[in-house]
Model the fold of this input.
Amino acid sequence: MNMNKISRRTFLRLLASCALLFLSVTSGSAFSQNGGELRFSLHSEPKTFDPLLVDDDSSLSIRYLTGGVLVRVNRHTQELEPELAESWKISKDGKQITFKLRHSITFSDGSPFSAEDVAFTMQRLMDPALHSSTGDAFRSGNGTVSTKIIAPDQIAVIFPAPLAGLDRLFDQVAIMSAHSPKKEAAVLGPFMVAEYKAGSSVLLRRNPNYWKKDSQGRRLPYLDAIRLDIQSNRDVEMLRFKRGELDLINVLDSDYFDRLAATSPQLAHDAGPSLDSDFMWFNQVASAPIPEYKRAWFRDANFRRAISQAVNREDLSRVVFNGHAQPAVGPVSPANKFWFNSKLKAEPYRPDAALQRLQADGFHLQNGALLDKAGNVVEFSIVTNAGSKPREHMAVMVQEDLGKLGIKVNVVTLDFPSLIERISQKFNYEAAMLGFRNVDLDPNGQMNIWLSSAEDHAWNPQQKSPETGWEAEIDRLMRAQASTADLKKRKESFDRVQEIVAEQTPIIYLVNQNALSAVSTAVEGANPGILSPQTFWNAERLILNATTRASR
Amino acid sequence: MNAARKLACVVVLTVCAVSLAANWLAPAGYAKQFREAPSAPPSRQHLLGTDEVGRDRFARILYGTRISLLLAPAAALVSTVMAALVGGLAGYLGGILLRLARGFTDLFLSLPWLFLLIAVRALLPLNVSPLTSVLITFLILGLLGWAASARVLSTSADDLRNSDFVLQARASGLHGPRLFLVHVLPNLKPVLYAQFWISIPVFILAEANLGILGLGVAEPLPSWGSLLRELEDLISFREEPWRLVPLLLLAVVMTSFQLLLSNEEVSA
Done:
């Protein structure tokens, strides 16, 4: 009798367990696969955990995962979406933005979120003593940036001068608590820093107070934690990924990508052209220590355009990047959906047309060598940074392409500090080849390149007044687009800038590399994109499938 | 000459001969880019496949060997002569000159070589042909690489200066340059030879190191250094074993150079 009772109890327990198991299996993958620790690498030590002082890639990744922002650029659609702010409005003069904040949100330590925190963050961000590079983007003119708390859930940020693309800049501003004793450790993002071992790893745990919920009302993020191993060696990173010790590689080069795709195609992701570009330019600085006849070539748009036509960009994309790059069109990658001028096309490879163009300017061939009108042999050097194999290979291919026109090119690789000194201080170079890692969709992010007075105006920086008519026109257009909030007008101005750049070719754009990444099959919900952070931009919705991970 | 030395001699001579015949053995040349076949495996057309921009690897190894094997001994000669001048003379003269020379040599040895080379390379003019750049690279290596040899030579010359036969020569009225040329220099020969042979692989490896940093011989000219750079991203030897050929060649030639040294020179 007693035995029977125990058996019945055991039976009921078993039945209950089975029912629970059944429920958990049938109630959707998000529930069954909840939790777990996602692992990937940072390539350097994070320099800071203060979200307003972030200036390096590792700190940027941590800020993205831990910081709560008022608005967020969706890395997939490139559209601006509400986050801590339900809605926002920019004044007609472009000097003020007013945010309506969400209610009942608390920081990770439990302190409440209000307009006071936004005001505190903006005041701290714009404090000149802080030297925040994030804050620099908000400096629109002389005067201070002020805030006005309209209500506990409503705040206006007022700028001294109009700031184009103002709302998008708030994607980079992680709101800090005005009152929490934990300071930057109190966060509004999906994760919070739980442990930091210098030189080894950073552990982020899920923020229990994170405000977002999924469509089923379940609080995000799904993951319990993210472990960021500090690992600068890319070979080791790849080996660990292959062994299943890491779940993501955010940025891969084309060689690694192809090797991974050959053995495990399901792990390798090519999201198409990124915002990054590789390019070359000629030194046009009036005081540069180069022969006068060479300066005359470099300052001639016809010469620059001919060089551009003689470079086989298709080959560069196919050979150097194994097809994981596209011939570049201009300063804006086609990946930048809104700002790219779709009327423009990449310069096709036309060596015959290039030679004709040069001959029209008096250049001529003699014993296979190209000479200018005065009989000077056309020879110049291209400097690039040592250690970057793709760039060195591109330089070698450009060397051969131009050799077909009778132009002698000497490729010189220099260590980075020497290179920078030559191109930005002594101007002791003829042509240079470098890359631009663009993280900003808005053309304002390129003001430092296109204004003739700018330090990064590569071919002829820091001009007191524009030395050419087309540079004056670019200055005017860039300032015009920066001083209006009218998106249509801004687009028209920047489209024209792209057209002038295509006509004058001060920079010869070569390729836009594709955004290549690796994601383990154990990570569900990943949708690698072209904008940084490519693989974990939707980290709050990533799910780790422990079964798949164990089987890797 | 023992069997190992004979074999080493044959290896070095064969490698030199084959590299000198590069024009006939690899008519495509080291710079021609076969862009339809980048990173290709070995085939009839490309015996050791192609590099990442489609250049014939076999041709590049032959031409690279020619450059490294001709210029490394030249650089070794420059450094050995400088070492003889600084170390040998200081050791022979002795006294404060010897102390000064040793101090200077020690200071030179303590310099961070690689950074010094990078700095010197960065100061050179940009518009030089690849051939000039390779000559400059090895000349710099030769001019900067004398200090270790000078240290050895100064000690040897110092020993000789105090040896009985030199004292006897002095007592017989022999002084100055004649004493140095007749009695000291011939006895320094084994040390000089040893330093010369030892320097050759050192310079080949130094150029290889510069090449790995992308600062060696200018493109498109190949050298062992630039060829070894190809191994940077080699994950699996089994997938592309032919890419190891430059490394194997370097190892074989370096070993042969070591075997070529006689016991006397090794002990020196």
About this structure: Chain A is about 35% helix and 20% strand. The longest helix of chain A spans residues 2-26.
